[in-house]
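Name: nitrate reductase (cytochrome)
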Amino acid sequence: MQSPGKHNESYTSTCCYCGVGCGVIVKKEKNGTISVAGNKDYPVNKGMLCSKGLNLHYTVNDKSDRLLYPQMRYNKNMPMKRVNWDEALERTAAVFKTFIEKYGPDSVAFYASGQCLTEEYYVVNKLMKGFIGSNNIDTNSRLCMSSAVAAYKMSLGEDSVPVCYDDIELADCFYVTGANPAWCHPILWRRVEAHKAANPNVKIIVVDPRATDTCSVADLHLRVNPGTDITLNHAIGRLLIENGDIDIDFIRNHAEGFAQYSELVFKRTLTEAALICGVSEHDIRLAAKYIGEAKGFISMWTMGLNQSSVGVNKNLSLINLNLITGHIGKPGSGPLSLTGQPNAMGGREVGGLANLLPAHRDLKNSLHREEVQKFWNSKPINPQPGLTATEMFEALEGGRLKAIWIMCTNPLTSLPNVRLAEQALKKAKFVVVQEISSKPETLAYADVILPAAAWAEKEGTMTNSERRISYLNKVIDPPGEALPDAEIICRFAQKMGYRGFDYKNAAEIYAEHVKLTAKTNIDATGVSYELLKEQQSVQWPFKKRLRPAGTPRLFADKQFYTPHGKAIIHAVPDALNSEQPDDNYPFILTTGRVRDQWHTMSKTGKVSKLNQHTKQSFIEINPHDAILLQLNEGDVVVVKSRRGEVRLKTNITSSVKQGVVFIPMHWGKILGNDLHRVNNLTNDALDPISKEPDFKYCAVSVQKYEKP
Ligand code: SF4
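Structure predicted for nitrate reductase (cytochrome):
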C-alpha cells in the first residue's frame, strides 16, 4: 500500500479540479518535474482519474506563464515594475488603510475562490471579518453552489450533504438533474455506470434540455424545456403521493410542511405540467414509478439547478422528493449536490462567504458573532452581510467600493454580464491580483500583482462533495518568489498591524480552524495534519473515539439540524423569473462545460492533449432552427443579448431543443478578442436568497455573420 505523506519521493494529494476530490500520487522526478497517477488506496476514485486529473502534472511542470515576483505601479498609466514582497505588501497595506480610514471598512473587498485551500480561506476570512471589520469577502463559489447551500439550510437546518459516495453502490435509482457528470464529475459517474452495469435493474433518470453524454446510460431522459425543473419535480411529487409511494411514517414524525406541499402540487394537473415541461405525461409517470419503486434513491444535481434566479426553489423542489419518500439518512439514499470546485465545501466550513461565519455559524446571530470575535480576539464583527460576487463588481462600478483584492480566480471570464465587471475594474481605484499565471485578463487592471504558489507547491487541506477532508502535500518549491496564498495573506495582515496572523506553518492555521468547529454540526476537532497524513482523509462531523473515519452518512437518527429536529418540506412556487425570449431575442441561451476543460481554462488550457477534444468555442443550434436561419455546419454566427455579443462557429445538432442554443463557458478573451466569451451575453439577475446568477437562461438572437 502506498503510504500517505512522503514515500520515496512520492506524495499523496487530491486533484485540484472538480469537487469529486480524487486522490492522486504525485511523484517528484529527478529533474525537478512531477508526474501524477491515481491513488489506488483512496476511497473516492480507487486509482481512477479522468482526462483532466491525468494531465495535472503538465499544468505544474509548464512554468512558461508563471508569475515569478511581485509587481506594482503607482499610476494606472505606468508600466508594472518588479518590487520585493515588503514593498508590494506595505504599499497595499497603506492604500487599504487610507480607504478604510476615509470611507470605512466596507470600501475594500476580497474576491476569492473555491480553489483556495481551507487554510487560505480561513485566514482571509479572519482578516476581513475580524480585523478589517467588513464582511466584503466572497468567492466564486457564489457562482456555483450558493443555491444548494441555502436550500440545505432551509430544508435540513444545515449546509450538509447527507450522503457519501459509497451510497452510490447501494442505490437503485438515480435522478440526475441539471448536471452532466459524465463530463463534469467523470470519476463519480464512472462509479454510477459501473454500478448499473453490474446491476441492470438500477434505473437512471436524466433531466436535461440537452442530450449529453450522461444520457447515454439513462433509462429515461426527460428533455425538459429550460427552466421548468420545479414544475417537473412537483409533478413527480404529486404522482408519488397519488401512487402511495411516499413514506408516511417519515413525513409524520420527521418532517414539516407536507400538507402545504401536497396542496400546492395538486394545483397543477399532470397534463399541464407535461405541457410546460415539454415532456410526455408517460415519461413523467415513468420517472415517478422508478423513484416510487426504489429502495435506495439518490438525487444528484449541480449548476443546472443552482445557477438560476430561482435556484434555491429549484433545489428545494428536488430535496422534497427525497423527503416525501423518506429517502434520506439511510444507505443508498439522499440528495447529493455535486460541487464544481475542489474546495467550495472547505471554504464554507471556514465561513468564506459574505453571509457566513466560521463552522457554518450565522452572521446574523449575535451569539455566533460574539463566539468568533472572542476566539479571534478581534474587534466586534459587523452583523451586515457583505457584498456577494456580482454585487462587489457593481459596487466597484458605482464607486462605493474603492479597492478589490482578487485571489485565485478569473472573474473577467467567469462572471455573468462580464463587460460590466470589466468596466468596474477599469473604474476601481485599487486592484490587487494574487495569481499563479500571467494570462488572466484581470492582470491588465491590477495595481499590484502578487505571485502565488500552485497546486503541489504548497500544503493544505480541501473538502470534497461528500464532506471528505484530505491533506495535500507540498511536493516541489514554487518558482521564483511565488508564495503560498495563506502566507501572502498573513504577511499582509501583519503589515496592516493586526495580531493573530503569525502562524509558523499551515498546520497551525488548520489547528485554529478545527478548534472553532467544536460543538458545531461540522465538528472537526481531532482532525489534524498528523491524522490526515496517517489516514489520508476523514469525513466531518468527526468524532475520533466513536467514528475514526468520520461520518459517511448524516441523519441516520432522523434528527435534522432544524430547531425542532424535523426536515422542512417547502412548498415553493414553480414560477420562473428569467429573461424571456421575444421577437428581438428569440432564443434561450444555456451555458455549460466541455469534457476536457475546467472553468476558465487557466490550467487545462495549457495542456495540448486536453485542447484536442474541443479546440475552440462553438454554439450548438438545433437543425430546425439552422434551416430557418439558413445556416450550414461551421458557419460563423453573431449571437447577441441585451448585454453584449459573441461570434462563434455553429455546431448543428439535435442534442439541443428547438429554440434553445448552447455555448460553453470556458473561453475568455483571446489575444484581446472577447468574441468567444459567452459571459458577454449572460444575465446577472440573481436568486434573491442565494445571490447566485442566472447563467443558464437568457434571451439571445442568432444571425449568420456577414463579413463587412
Ligand atoms: Fe479530478 Fe474531478 Fe477528474 Fe477526479 S473527476 S480526476 S477530481 S477532475
